Amino acid sequence: MSTQDIGLMSALKQRMGWLNDRQKVVAQNVANASTPGFKPRDLRAQDFGALVAGATEGNDNLGMVQTNAMHMAVDGGGVKHGKEVVSPDSETTMDGNSVVLEEQMIKMSESRMQFQAAVSFYEKSMAMVRMAARAPGR
Question: In this protein, which residues make up the domain named Flagellar basal body rod protein N-terminal (predicted)?
């Protein structure tokens, strides 16, 4: 059994790969901050629901269930998806470049923090796997 057989581990690895790719795209945006006509790019946000569904594929016993009649209903009782807001480009220079370094730095910081959180969660999960695999009393 490898770590790829554990759905959570493969989902974390996929998330870290996406964050790594996003960091590269943001770095390219920063590198082209003075290139005439350059438009900043970004990766499409990962769909967490699809990521979890892919990680739990084949595990029918992992779905949400209502264990008590006093609990919230599983089917439709939760929060609906928020309204998507489209924001226009914040700044475009005279030469057509629309890279805003402050926005790129924010994206870079967000990606770094999310990557560190994923690595930390991965390390904790691996520690639990090692602890479970260890012989009793050792």
Answer: 21-39
